[in-house]
Every structure is written in C-alpha cells, then in structure tokens.
Amino acid sequence: MKKFLDQDFLLESETAKRLYHQYAANQPIIDYHNHLPPDLIAQDYKFKDLGEMWLAGDHYKWRAMRAAGIPEQYITGNSTTKEKFLAWAQVVPQTIGNPLYHWSHLELQRYFGITEVLNPGTAEDIWAKTERAIAGGEFTTQRLLRKMKVTVTCSTDDPADSLEHHKNFDSKKAGFALFPAFRPDKVLAVADPEAWNTYIRRLGEAAGTEISSFFTLIEVLDQRHEFFASLGGRLSDHGLQRPIFALATPADLESYIARLLKGGTLNPQETEEFQTAVMLEVGKMNHRRGFVMQLHLGAIRNNNARAFRTLGPDTGYDSISDEPMAAKLSAFLNTLDTNDQLPKTILYNLNPRDNYLFATMIGNFQGGGIPGKMQFGSGWWFLDQKQAMEWQMTALANLGLLSRFVGMLTDSRSFLSFPRHEYFRRILCNLLGDWVEKGEIPWDEALLGKMVQDISYGNAAEYFGFVFE
C-alpha cells in the first residue's frame, strides 16, 4: 500500500517517476490564464489567515460545502474565516474522489509543510500551525508566487480597466512578470440594455471617446487592445456558452447599436450578428498584434436564479452545457482564416463529449510555419481533474501533436492554487510512463524528457512570446 501523497504521488511506474523527478518537478511556471486580482499582486498583499486564502472566492469549495449541507453563512456569509475553515474541514473527508481532496492536501504540504490529513479532528491543530506560519510574514501574494517558481502570470482584465496595477508593477523587484489579458465579454452582453449602456459609457471614458456607432465601438476596443499590448499583454480571453456565427451588413450593425444606445433590445438573431461582428474584429486585432485568442466554450452560467439574485455571478452555480459546437466554431475560425487574419488560438471545451471535436477542429487551421498555432486547451473547470486531463491529452495525442501542447493553467482565483501545475505534470508523466511500460512508445529518455519539459514550460514560453529577465 502506497503512502498518501508521498513523493511518487500519481506516478505508477519507474519511468513515470524518472520523467517527473528529473524533468518536470523543477520546471518554472507560466500561468497564462487565471483570475487573480492584480491589485493584490501589485501591493504584495499579506494574508491574514488560511481561511482568507482558501475560502474567499473559491466556488469549487463552495459547491462541495453546499452538497455536504453546510449552511450558507459558513460559505459566503458573515461567519469568521476560522469558522468557515472549520466548516470546510468537516467537508474535506467527504470529498474523496474529488480533486479538491488532492488539491487541499497538496496545498497544505507545499505551502505549509503540513502532512496531516485534514478532518474535524485535526482542524484546530492545522489551523494553529498555519497561523504560526502566516505570522512569519512569508504569506504575501508575491512570495507565494515566487515559492511556486512562477515566472509569468496573466490576470484577466476588462477593456475598460485602467490597468494601473500592471503599469506600476515592478517585475524585477517581484521576481516574476504580471501581464493583462483582454476579456471583452461585457461588450457582448446586450440582453440587459441598461447595464450594457452603463458599461459602454465606462468603456468610452477609458478611451476618451464617446461610443456613438459600431465604428467607434471597434475603434475604442482597438485603442484599448493596443493599451493592453503596451503593458505586455499577449492574450485575449472570451467566455462563451456556445460558438457564435451570424453575419450582418455594416448598415445592420449600425442600426443595432443605435437601438441599443437608445435603450432598445435586439432579437436573438440580431444579438448573434452583433456579437459575431465584435468577435471577428477582436480576432483581427489579436492577429495584428500577435495576441493569442482563448475561447472558453461550453459553460452554462448562473443556473440558480434565486442564488444569482442573492450572491451574484461566479459563486458556484454554473455547469456544463450541451449545445452544438462544430459548425459555428468552424465558420468563425474559417472567416478569420480566409483573409489570413486568424491569430494563434486556444480552444477550451467544458463538455468531454467534445474532446475529439475540438482536437480535430484545431487541425483544420494549423499552418503558417507556426508550431502548434491552434491549441486544444488543457482540461478546464469541471475537467481539470485526473481522469479528464488524461482524456484531453489522449485525444490531443491521438489526433494532433501532444508534444506541442502549451500545458497547464490554474484558471483560479486562489493564490494557493499553483500546485495544480504539479498535479498536471505528474499526470502527464504518468501517462507517458504508462505508454513506455506497455511498449507503445520507446524509452528514449532524451526525447521524452525534453517533451515533458516543453509541455511543462518551454512550449508556453515560445508560444506566447514572453520575455522575462
């Protein structure tokens, strides 16, 4: 019987162990997509306790706590951070089989050196140990990132954001780079004209331009895109429930935005035409400035209307959607590619049913002398656990080039989430080790060792063009 979470955790063969310990373990981290608050990074915020670090904003844990019957006051309510931690400790033993069980104990080990299993019986002792460690002053945002050997982290930012924290960030002093990523989702959110108009005014003010037409909207987005690029931005990000594609004439687009600016609404067809036009224009901006376009597809959000009214978005009420993906995704990518304006693109799916669809879709638009121009993104959100990561990597290997894969990202709001890169690397090494042990691939240590290093770090550094001294 193996010891839980020992040095060979998830590594089932000698080959896997060698690949991980010799080639993956010491690689630095490029976390090219997360939701960490850039203000906390820039000010090197010092956390007060483990409850604040672990439970504030972590809707993965919130979902599990609700499923275990924990009252909401101990999840998002006004209970103390220690009370919330003790409630979480009640739930942890119930999460066996869920990646939260692995992640929680990895984080206790990697950040605090705590090897005890967290449960109600050990919770008070573990809390006391973390309190002593945090009191030492090492648990600031920048020190946590340095501890995990992060060289680049990319926040997720709205085009209207001032990016003041990115402008004032001293990467040499911090020991890593902080770059913004361009996420214009609110421009597409026309279902609520009042909220959309409030946002559009804010976006225009950020650019010093009144948005009065579709032309000026795109002009403003382009200006803000250039601003992101000036601060090292190299990615855009888009969260869509499904691919969109419906073309409209310039005159139609001007009529749609005129109606919206007057507080009117668009019907579903008009909405899709407007959203498609914006997305195509942002795609062209990405191509022009060498940005990577990330398309996160397949989440159905805010399913619980009562909870949304009370708690707002991103509080644990989202799930996997099952809408058609192929035809409109193909048409969108092809429209950009027709005039050679398709940027490097990462496609993330949330429904595992679509793994082979996405793995083959990227093959349609590779080329231009760019290795891995089109990427099938790492297992995302509900798919960032062991089995789904294996599914994603196996599909990519079967239908594309696993060796060109840009690897893992945290997609997290937690500064303690970076052991997920280790989790991914162990799974990768175990997968390759299993193929070697079965005789499906040869034991070529130089070849496989470099492949592991590339997927862990090197491919991302090359793909995104990050330069960090």
Tell me the layout of helices and strands.
Blueprint: H1 14-24, E1 29-31, H2 38-42, H3 50-55, H4 59-67, H5 81-91, H6 99-112, H7 123-135, H8 141-147, E2 150-154, H9 164-167, H10 171-174, E3 177-179, E4 181-182, H11 185-188, H12 193-207, H13 214-230, E5 235-240, H14 250-261, H15 268-289, E6 292-297, E7 299-300, H16 305-311, E8 319-320, H17 326-338, E9 344-349, H18 355-361, E10 374-376, H19 386-399, H20 419-437, H21 445-464
Parallel strand pairs: 1-2, 2-3, 4-5, 5-6, 6-9, 9-10
Antiparallel strand pairs: 7-8
Helix pairs in contact: 1-20, 1-21, 12-13, 13-15, 18-19, 19-20
Structural write-up:
Among the domains are: 1-42 and 141-175 and 406-469, Metal-dependent hydrolases (TIM Barrel); 46-135, Orthogonal Bundle (uronate isomerase, domain 2, chain A). Helix content is 50%, strand content 8%. It has 21 helices and ten strands. The strands form three sheets. A five-stranded parallel sheet has the order 4-5-6-9-10, with helices on one face. It has a three-stranded parallel sheet with strand order 1-2-3. β9, α18 and β10 (374-376) form a beta-alpha-beta unit. The chain is globular and about 70 Å long.
